[in-house]
Amino acid sequence: MKTQEFNEEIARRSAWVSEVKMEMGKVVIGQQHLVNRLILSLLCKGHVLLEGVPGLAKTLSVKALAGAMHAAFSRIQFTPDLLPADLIGTMIYNPQERQFTPKRGPIFANLILADEINRAPAKVQSALLEAMQERQVTLGEMSHSLPNPFLVLATQNPIEQEGTYQLPEAQLDRFLFKVIVDYPSRDEELQVLELMGHTESAPSTHPVVSVEDIDASRALVDKIFIDPAVQRYIVDLVRTTRTPEKVDRSLGGMVRAGASPRATINMALASKALAFTKQRSYVTPQDVKDLAHDILRHRILLSYEAEAANVSSDDVVERILSKVPVP
Questions:
Q1: SS3 category, 76
Q2: Terminal CA-to-CA distance of the chain, rounded, Å?
């Protein structure tokens, strides 16, 4: 396919992106960064972890996205007494047929909202981990494939620690993005008040994109060009998270473990998806830099020295971005 034809195909296939944003804009005021990352996760088949204090439209944004799609949606409220069977289902004995048959749980949907994911105990997290990585669950002796697409969009509250369980690093690494959801601006909060400050039902979104449209878009995302120089830049960024003192001496002893090769793969995939949403047929170094914080912040394990010095993983990523040469 010629470049001009490819660009026209991208423009045609990416039209649903703006339509989804418009639909979500009827319900979600501001939070453009969050909305953009949710759309990228659809294109990359990636899971998203949303972190922010209560009331910042984390749950609302996920429900708005689900409403804008012709897809199945499940919301699961995670609690300390949740069991794996409450998530994936269980085997039920059928006395007429004298055999066990599977009863599927709420995880069999296209979009899963895992609300307050850090409240669930280890066994539930283990069951969810298999679903996130393998896109299948095991009931009895049989494995059952999950629908396509299958995305886990999880929320957690960073300030509440009582009755919560810290997510294991292996599970954090399965999330494509960790998005920090912040407070709205003053004007945005005024708009929220005008939209929601009454007892009537809140507005809702309507389906504007199908699973087939998203699959066709993914096929184009795979064809987005990424220059070898940009590929080397991605690898250099990820590798530097493991030994950041090589580019900045002040980061010596601050990092216990850096990002894995999964971060490298995710960075390339998300960069191509970002280029697609901007109707470009190629990836730029700026695309990589725009995504670096959301892809790397949850994959960098800080040392006690970093915590004592009040250095966050975002600080480490920012210093790395300022030191690694850009092609």
A1: strand
A2: 27
**List of domains in the chain:** 3-197+207-216 (3.40.50.300), 225-323 (1.10.8.80)
Taking a C-beta distance cutoff of 8 angstroms, is the pair 119, 163 a contact?
A: yes
DSSP 95: T
Average pLDDT value for residue range 278-283 = 90
| CA gap 299, 295 in Å, rounded | 8
The total of other beta-carbon atoms located within 10 Å of residue 163's CB is 10
Q: Decide: 149 and 189 in contact? Cβ < 8 Å.
A: no
Question: What's the token pair of residue 80?
Answer: 């300390």
Residue 202 has pLDDT above 80, yes or no: no
Residue 28: the pLDDT is 85
Residues 6 or more apart whose CB falls under 8 angstroms from that of 95 comprise: none
Rounded CA separation 163/141 (Å): 33
* Three-state SS at 69: strand
| Contact status, residue 29 vs residue 195, Cβ threshold 8 Å | yes
Dist. CA 13–CA 8, nearest whole Å: 9
| Residue whose C-alpha is closest to residue 34's, from 202, 118, 119, 153 | 153
Residues in Cβ contact with 197 at an 8 Å cutoff, skipping those fewer than 6 apart: none
Whole-number Cα distances in Å, 141 to 102, 135, 274, 286: 10, 16, 40, 47
Cis peptide before 285 (omega within 30 of 0): no
pLDDT higher than 80, residue 164: no
Only one residue has tokens 């195909």, namely: 9
CB 39 within 8 A of CB 277: yes
Q: What is the pTM of this model?
A: 0.88
Q: Are 89 and 102 in contact (CB under 8 A)?
A: yes
